[in-house]
């Protein structure tokens, strides 16, 4: 479903602040895989997401999504193919629009229709059913401005917005980091439910190694713009947090700094 081949990105090239954010990065993700991504600050996680989403174009290499070359496709052109949820619950929604209006805009964009067109009764029912599936009672708050919801409720709605029409790829950019522990657990449970029920190919950045090992089907650790560790299957099931850190130390031949990753 996703093929990243020899992708590089350098910021501030030929200056004292030159930083190689992605260094000849390659990654293949099969359809339906749920990949969790860990790594320290500056490891290249968000830069990789920006290259996939089109927020930033890479310097070299290629990116394919479901067989289509999207390397230099404009961000708005790939928006209907890719769902992305950010760390900040305020991103991804329009605070002065109601819950229902936000969902309608997301739905219309996903089916490439005029967002100003009123949805049919059938479409409204479809949207309401997906919101009701969260079991948070938000289907009864369709006329509430989304800016009045809690962070956890807002991220839950954003999850529905991103998956109303199944995307080719779902990018979760530390989408629970700004939430309190109880809300974070609730959103992660909803994420796992929606992704598994719809078999959505998903990449999720997290700073919590325990969550990275508990969720999904595969875990990769990034470092210095490339993949240091790639674990899945039975090997992944048996690993503890300490095992992952030791594996990183062996692979990179250096001690892992706890300041780089919040456990």
Total number of beta strands: 10
Oligomer: single chain
Shape category: globular
Structural class, from secondary structure content? alpha/beta
SS element count, helices: 9
The main pleated sheet reads as: 6 strands, mixed
* Name of the CATH architecture of the domain at 2-91 and 168-252: 3-Layer(aba) Sandwich
CATH superfamily of the domain at 2-91 and 168-252: P-loop containing nucleotide triphosphate hydrolases
Helical content (DSSP H or I, runs of 4+): 25-40%
Fraction in beta strands: 15-25%
Average pLDDT score: 88
Q: Might you state the CATH topology name of the domain at 2-91 and 168-252?
A: Rossmann fold
> Unreliable stretches, pLDDT < 50, 5 or more residues?
258-263
Biggest sheet strand order reads 6-7-8-3-9-10
Q: Report the span from N to C terminus.
A: 30 Å
Using only C-alpha atoms, the radius of gyration works out to 19 Å
One letter per element, helices H and strands E, the order comes to: EEEHEEHEHHHEHEHEEHH
State the CATH class of the domain at 2-91 and 168-252: Alpha Beta
Give your account of this protein's structure.
The chain has helices at 45-53, 75-78, 99-110, 121-132, 151-163, 181-198, 209-214, 233-238, 241-252; strands spanning 2-11, 19-29, 34-38, 60-65, 68-69, 82-85, 169-173, 202-205, 218-223, 226-232. It is an alpha/beta fold. It has a domain at 2-91 and 168-252: 3-Layer(aba) Sandwich (Rossmann fold), CATH 3.40.50.300. Helix 5 runs parallel beside helix 6 (181-198).
């Amino acid at each position: 479903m996703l093929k990243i081949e020899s992708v590089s990105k350098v910021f501030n090239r030929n200056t004292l602040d030159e930083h190689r954010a992605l260094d000849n990065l390659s990654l293949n993700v099969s359809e339906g895989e749920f990949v969790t991504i860990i790594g320290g600050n500056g490891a290249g996680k968000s830069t990789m997401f920006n290259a996939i989403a089109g927020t930033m174009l890479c310097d070299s290499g290629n990116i394919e999504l479901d067989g289509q070359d999207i390397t230099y496709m404009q961000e708005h052109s790939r928006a209907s193919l890719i769902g992305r949820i950010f760390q900040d619950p305020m991103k991804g929604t329009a605070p002065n629009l109601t819950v229902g209006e936000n969902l309608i805009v997301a739905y219309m964009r996903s089916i490439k229709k005029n967002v100003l067109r009123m949805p049919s009764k059938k479409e409204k029912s479809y949207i309401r059913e997906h919101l009701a599936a969260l079991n948070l009672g938000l289907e009864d708050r369709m006329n509430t401005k989304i800016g009045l919801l809690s962070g956890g409720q807002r991220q839950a709605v954003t999850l529905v917005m991103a998956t109303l029409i199944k995307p080719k790829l779902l990018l979760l950019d530390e989408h629970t980091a700004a939430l309190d522990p109880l809300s974070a657990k609730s959103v992660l449970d909803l994420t796992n439910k929606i992704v598994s029920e719809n078999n959505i190919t998903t990449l999720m950045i997290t700073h919590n190694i325990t969550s990275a090992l508990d969720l999904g089907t595969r875990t990769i650790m990034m470092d210095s713009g490339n993949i240091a560790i790639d674990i899945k299957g039975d090997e992944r099931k048996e690993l503890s947090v300490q095992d992952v850190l030791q594996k990183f130390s062996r692979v990179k031949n250096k001690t892992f700094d706890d300041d780089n990753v919040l456990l």
